Amino acid sequence: MLELLSRLFSPVYCDAPEPWQIGFQDAGSPIAEGIQNLHNEIFFYLIVIFVGVGWVLGSVVVNYSQDKSPIVYKYANHGTLIELVWTITPAFILIAIAFPSFKLLYLMDEVISPSMTIKVVGHQWYWSYEYSDFVNDDGESIEFDSYMLPESDLEDGQLRLLDVDNRVVVPVDTHIRFVVTGADVLHDFACPSLGLKIDCCPGRLNQTSVFIKREGVFYGQCSELCGVYHGFMPIAIEAVSMEKYLSWLDSQG
Amino acid sequence: MPIAPIVGKLRKRLITDLSMGLGLGFAGGYLFWYTVHKPIVHQRDEYYKKYDAAKA
Ligand SMILES: [Cu+2]
Which regions span the lipid bilayer (chain B) (predicted)? Predict the structure, then answer.
């Protein structure tokens, strides 16, 4: 019972999916906030349309049934004016939805003067990361693979199918650019709570940027079907303060 | 059997249906906006206010 309650009303910010979750994860970046706000704005229209159409449909069923209206009114078969109304009104609703959507879309596309770049490569079936802005003592850029932790290796508190051996450690409050590609087949680098989702195409580079607003571990999964272990190549992004990030970099040397 | 003239079939219900449909629709929409969306944004803003205060 207590466990159920703690699952329903989790007091900790968990940037990973929760059991029986139907909403969003807590946003960790301005883009994710924008996405969730846009979703709710569109959801507003959705409720209006759902209730409005539902009501009219119900009214037609009740008031124009065989019993109440046995003879069909001849002008009920065709009416130019009403057809114009029900064609043009949805068009305006679509425009009202489209504009904020495009605004966000182009905002997401913008990579604003990134302070650092991380290369992300999707493999069958793990991720590899390269911090080419930083070099170790031998003058090589920092590079590592990130595999999912098998269930037998999990320690208390680690998430099944989500935790990895080497997390992507990044600083908070920094514009970070991800340059992504695939080594073999299509993969997709995604992290819901950061509003990240970008295809990794073999032979092609994609870029996206993220600005993480708070410390935490943000989980995502490969989001393009890439083979049998597609579901077993999670992404774990650990956002830390700048000092911790620098000492982590040091330890990579 | 004589049949009563069929008049005002659309007009009779149109006002009621449109106002009830859209009225309830907007009511539902605003209910969602103020009971679901706003609290989430408020909670988020409060969190960052505290978070930034702790950082500074
Ligand atoms: Cu994959």
Answer: 18-36
Q: Indicate if A131 and A243 belong to the same structural domain.
A: yes
Whether the CB of A244 is below 8 Å from some CB of chain B: the reply is: no
Q: What is the mean pLDDT of chain A?
A: 87
Residue A97 token pair:
């939805």
Is any Cβ of chain A less than 8 angstroms from the Cβ of B39? no
Same domain as A85, residue A68: yes
Residues A48 and A99 in one domain: yes
Pull the structure tokens for residue A77. 């078969």
Supply the pLDDT for residue A11: 44
CB contact at 8 A, A56 and B21: yes
Sequence-distant (6+) residues with CB within 8 A of A244 are: none
Range of the domain at A35: 30-109
Measured between CB atoms, which of A26, A51, A69 is closest to B28?
A: A51
- A205 and A171 in a common domain: yes
The A residues from 63 to 92 touching B (CB cutoff 8 Å) are 63, 69, 71, 73, 76
Q: Who's near B56: CB < 8 A, 6+ residues apart?
A: none
User: What's residue A146's pLDDT?
Assistant: 93
Residues A167 and A208 in one domain: yes
pLDDT given for residue A6 in this prediction: 54
Sign of the torsion angle spanned by Cα atoms A207, A213, A216, A218: negative
**Is there a contact between A52 and B25 if contact means CB atoms under 8 Å apart?**
yes
What pLDDT, on the 0 to 100 scale, is given for residue A198? 94
- Closest-CA residue in chain A for B36? A40
Q: Look at residue A46 and tell me whether its pLDDT is greater than 80.
A: yes
Q: How many domains would you assign to chain A? A: 2
